[in-house]
Amino acid sequence: MSYITNHLPTAELQALDAAHHMHPFTTNDELAEKGARIITKAKGVFLTDSEGNEILDGMAGLWCVNIGYGRQEMADVAARQMLELNYYNTFFMTSHVPAIALATEIAKLAPGDLNHVFFAGSGSEANDTNIRMVRTYWAMKDKPEKSHIISRKNAYHGSSMGSGSLGGMTYMHEQGGMPIPGIHHINQPDWWAEGGDQTPEAFGLARAQELEAKILELGADNVAAFIGEPVQGAGGVIVPPSTYWPEIQRICDKYDVLIIADEVICGFGRTGNWFGSQTMGIKPHIMTIAKGLSSGYQPIGGSIVCDEIAEVIGSGEFNHGYTYSGHPVCSAVALENLRIMQDEKILDHVNNVAAPALQEGLDKLAEHPLVGGVNVSGMMASLPLSPRKETRSKFAGAAGTVGYMCRERCFANNLVMRHVGDRMIISPPLVITPEEIGTFMTRATKALDETYTALK
Ligand code: PLP
Hints:
Helix content is 43%, strand content 15%. The strands form three sheets. Strands 4-10-9-8-7-5-6 form a seven-stranded mixed sheet, sandwiched between helices. A four-stranded mixed sheet has the order 1-2-3-13. Strands 11-12-15-14 form a four-stranded antiparallel sheet, with helices on one face. The site of pyridoxal-5'-phosphate has 16 residues, from helix 6. This is Putrescine aminotransferase.
């Protein structure tokens, strides 16, 4: 047994990390050259690293720590649940109180007739479930050929074979033989990068109408579902023009195509409502959830399913499930997270305090010579960097070079702001205070200034 603790020197931890720990989305060279930043603890919106730096987490981890870090109540619930029932499954006619209570609470919060929850361990797993669920649904309605799923380029739906195929990131498809058959991708509604001279409204409509063209190309009788994030997150916080989702809804209604809203980032308050579908006026048949469901305190995800699909699927046996579907500790912790969100009125805080303060700060950052625009929905935002904001121009050279530089300057100034290409991404814990947003803006401005100077 090796005794590796926070007390080892950073360099030693980094060397062990590089030697034994394979990281997602990271190269060995990067790890060997720079060493990973080692996070040792966190409280509220601040992380502490192994050198004692206090870092403002402008990303809420990976868009997930909505209620902030280090909450005693969450630890207490986890400990209590581990002692009472640390594990049991939900297969073969068994259940337990944490899964029952969590499903009931989610059904209460979800809009319309989304009254049923199929639990998974993550967003990726839940989207894999969704592929099987919508195909099984149509097959059970004697339409097995209605099996194709339409998604968008540059969408992110997870990293497994199924969810990675639903995603539209070509650099992911290049590894491991994705996409799996029967998944198609239309263009995304990214007006800032791809809208040219069109108005956002005309562009949004045109991009939505690509769905109709794709349905007609495949034949409506062959199309099971359309999947989309209400606001694309990992693709660069792409807030669609106001015309986009109403047109998508019209088209899906017209051709009897199910809508899967991937709420893994948007769900649980990120856009100012419980779900991004409410913010964007979407009426989905299935919503994918994870991340903010437990604020990242335990790994849990799921699919919230409408009455009709749950009835049809349940009329036979759905041969699908995960050992940890509805895991009791994860469920109890997620339920406590939802209690805190409601008792502390975190949505009111978002809408009345945090989101207006964030918007005000971002509007100021938009005046910076390096910032080409602002995309924002509630507490998720992006700042596309540009050498000429008037024309929304891109930098010469490899995409992402300037974004990477800026991310590094953020790190150096004790701020986590991620980059997607040359866009800077912001998604802080929802509980962030105006004062902390002020600290965010000061550090972000310094990082932008330093990047700008380095580019001269
Ligand atoms: N869907 C969306 C919209 C996501 O942003 C993510 C993760 O970032 C996923 C699905 C995958 O979730 P997980 O990483 O929990 O598998």
